[in-house]
């Protein structure tokens, strides 16, 4: 994706941001993470593009699926858009996330012809460029849990697990896989990998390999982390952060953990 990010010298282009997630029980359904607007490509107020974009966002917010892509051919350029919800969500939770996300895009990226917003539960993006079925790894968003897991064996186990699960996600029809693995001394590690399902298995695998490779430089020694790009995402934690048949998702680390409840550090690329 042609956003304003220079992919080389990644480590220099980092900005540390602290978020204090002060959430009440009710407000935890959808967790907003970040957004990017491409400010190089803009449209004018009341232009044909603006009206096409409004139509597009409305169409995304009206769909009742967990992945959806739409093309609006109106009076201006063509506008392409899609959303993807995390694979564990049900349709109603997905729909709610997409409604919030499209509202965010409409208010934050008011003049951009290309933009993306990430929630923990969904991704929504649009562009005047045809981007379906292609891998876009920029811009990306990185987050990590401030709790340490500095034992050297942790990183290797983590990378092996994620690499294995990436294979499963790439070969899954929905391009989604989760895994619970036991890590001696740490308990259960929960990992989740997902690509937009318009990607081929090969492209999904390529995208996931890229985000997994980011982990050692961004998040080494952390008990949890996530890398989100437009085309694929990876996340792992030592607590269940996604819904599964036998448990609800916890939004923040367990109460008896060593960090203050709900506190996390998110790290992201500098624009
Ligand atoms: C935006 O424009 C600047 C200056 O022309 C260019 O260096 C940059 O790569 C452009 N960014 C994108 C995302 O197209
Ligand atoms: C959705 O994307 C596919 C390519 O992955 C494309 O062939 C199809 O036309 C798109 N559908 C819409 C409604 O844009
Ligand atoms: C969807 O999932 C949420 C969270 O687990 C749950 O509260 C809700 O009842 C579910 N809705 C449906 C229609 O299954
Ligand atoms: C994690 O390790 C870093 C560096 O060793 C240290 O500065 C930090 O305080 C540790 N964080 C926690 C939550 O223990
Ligand atoms: C990842 O797994 C594939 C097979 O699924 C293997 O060929 C490859 O060497 C593994 N890569 C790493 C870095 O472990
Ligand atoms: C929190 O407590 C539960 C049960 O009391 C235990 O299973 C779990 O390992 C604890 N977690 C941490 C991070 O200490």
TrEMBL record:
Keywords: Repeat, Signal. Gene3D superfamilies: Gnk2 domain, C-X8-C-X2-C motif. Residues 1-27 form the signal peptide. InterPro entries: GNK2, GNK2_sf. Transmembrane segments: none annotated. It comes from the Eukaryota. The lineage of its organism: Eukaryota, Viridiplantae, Streptophyta, Embryophyta, Tracheophyta. It holds the Pfam family Stress-antifung. CDD domains: Gnk2-like. Residues 31-131, 136-241 form the Gnk2-homologous domain. This is Gnk2-homologous domain-containing protein.
């Amino acid at each position: 994706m042609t956003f304003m990010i220079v992919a080389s010298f990644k480590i220099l282009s980092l900005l540390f941001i602290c978020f204090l997630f002060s959430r009440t029980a009710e407000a935890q359904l959808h967790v907003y993470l970040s957004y990017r607007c491409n400010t190089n490509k803009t449209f004018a107020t009341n232009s044909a593009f603006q009206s096409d974009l409004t139509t597009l966002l409305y169409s995304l917010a009206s769909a009742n699926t967990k992945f959806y892509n739409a093309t609006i051919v109106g009076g201006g350029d063509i506008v392409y858009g899609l959303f993807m919800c995390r694979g564990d969500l049900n349709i109603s939770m997905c729909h709610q996330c997409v409604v919030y996300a499209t509202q965010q895009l409409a208010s934050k990226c008011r003049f951009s012809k290309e933009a993306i917003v990430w929630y923990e539960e969904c991704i929504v993006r649009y562009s005047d460029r045809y981007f379906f079925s292609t891998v876009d790894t920029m811009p990306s968003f990185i987050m990590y849990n401030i709790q340490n897991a500095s034992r050297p064996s942790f990183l290797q186990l983590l990378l092996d697990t994620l690499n294995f699960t990436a294979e499963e996600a790439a070969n899954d029809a929905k391009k989604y896989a989760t895994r619970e693995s036991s890590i001696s001394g740490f308990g259960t590690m929960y990992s989740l990998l997902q690509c937009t399902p318009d990607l081929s298995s090969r492209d999904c695998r390529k995208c996931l390999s890229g985000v997994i490779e980011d982990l050692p430089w961004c998040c080494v020694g952390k008990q949890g982390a996530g890398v989100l790009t437009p085309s694929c995402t990876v996340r792992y934690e030592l607590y269940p952060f996604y819904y599964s048949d036998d448990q609800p998702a916890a939004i923040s680390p367990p109460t008896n953990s060593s960090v203050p409840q709900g506190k996390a550090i998110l790290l992201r690329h500098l624009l």
